[in-house]
């Protein structure tokens, strides 16, 4: 049982992973992952589709291009790219040797020149944002993440997901002054403590809090990390569905013949001819 650092008499408890975070049924675990060697080819099932995997730097990574061409084939490149950036997913470019391995495994075409690789967890998050039902992570009541940032003198606080109902919601309670801030304002809030060191903000702006705000625990449980990733994806494009195309306009009803441009021209020509005839009659009368 882990407790949240939120000050007060009511401590927030983090239940065991088995009760709070049920396994995700959209992917199937693979046996023998620990025994895989570098550049070893494997296979992961996502939404019933086999995706080629490759062990890179000790992590099993999946081919993003293959995922885009199979599971996400109904979405454009820009949609997938923007959603990946919104979710904070970083691609690792494979080496020429790894690219050749992916070609021979059938994950990439022969004409391909590069390929981005993402972890299995990142692939699940990306596919779920497009294909799954996007809901906030299920967390215990009164739960809070212990978070901190190192901008300026740094600060520490409690991120309360229950209060995070909009991008500007004041959902972070400062551990020093007990004031509430929105995530994009909290990274500009700091306290100078005796052991604090000033850090020049790395181009911190109101939209970069997801990069600067981190869990205080350096070795958190995987379930806690996954829940934190899901919370950060909220209100950032990570859960937006593609809008349906607008309905085609109804065909215009056929206009009556009298309103047709040619009909109006004919009417004006008749009126003009009658005016000329009357003018000629008046002129001939004056001459006589």
Number of alpha- plus pi-helical segments: 9
CATH class of the domain at 24-131: Alpha Beta
Query: Class by helix and strand content?
Result: alpha+beta
The CATH topology label of the domain at 24-131 is Mlu1-box Binding Protein, DNA-binding Domain
Strand order of the largest sheet: 3-4-5-7-6
Structure summary, number of beta strands: 12
CATH homologous superfamily title of the domain at 24-131: Ski
Identify the overall geometry: globular
Beta content: 15-25%
Tell me about the largest β-sheet. 5 strands, antiparallel
- Rounded to the nearest angstrom, the distance between the terminal CA atoms is 120 Å
Q: Per CATH, which architecture of the domain at 24-131?
A: Roll
What portion of residues is helical?
25-40%
Radius of gyration: 32 Å
Would you identify the regions where 5 or more consecutive residues have pLDDT less than 50? 1-29, 256-265
């Amino acid at each position: 049982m882990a407790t949240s650092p939120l000050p007060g008499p009511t401590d927030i408890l983090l239940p065991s992973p088995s009760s709070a975070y049920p396994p995700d049924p959209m992917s199937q675990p693979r046996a023998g992952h620990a025994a895989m060697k570098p550049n070893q080819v494997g296979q992961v099932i996502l939404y019933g589709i086999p995706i080629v995997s490759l062990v890179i730097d000790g992590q099993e990574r999946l081919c993003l291009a293959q995922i885009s061409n199979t599971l996400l084939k109904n979405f454009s490149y820009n949609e997938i790219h923007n959603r990946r950036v919104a979710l904070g997913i970083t691609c690792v470019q494979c080496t020429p040797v790894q690219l050749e391995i992916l070609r021979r495994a059938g994950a990439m075409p022969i004409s391909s020149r590069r390929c981005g690789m993402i972890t299995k967890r990142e692939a699940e998050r990306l596919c779920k944002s497009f294909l799954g039902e996007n809901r906030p992570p299920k967390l215990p009541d009164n739960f809070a993440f212990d978070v901190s940032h190192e901008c300026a003198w740094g600060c520490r606080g409690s991120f309360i997901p229950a209060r995070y109902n909009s991008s500007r919601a004041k959902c972070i309670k400062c551990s020093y002054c007990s004031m509430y801030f929105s995530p994009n304002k909290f990274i500009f809030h700091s306290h100078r403590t005796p052991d604090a060191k000033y850090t020049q903000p790395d181009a911190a702006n109101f939209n970069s809090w997801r990069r600067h705000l981190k869990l205080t625990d350096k070795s958190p449980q995987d379930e806690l990390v996954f829940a934190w990733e899901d919370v950060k994806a909220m209100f950032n494009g990570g859960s937006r569905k593609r809008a349906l195309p607008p309905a085609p306009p109804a065909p215009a009803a056929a206009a009556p013949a009298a309103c047709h441009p040619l009909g109006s021209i004919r009417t004006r020509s008749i009126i003009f001819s009658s005016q000329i005839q009357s003018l000629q009659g008046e002129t001939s009368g004056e001459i006589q």
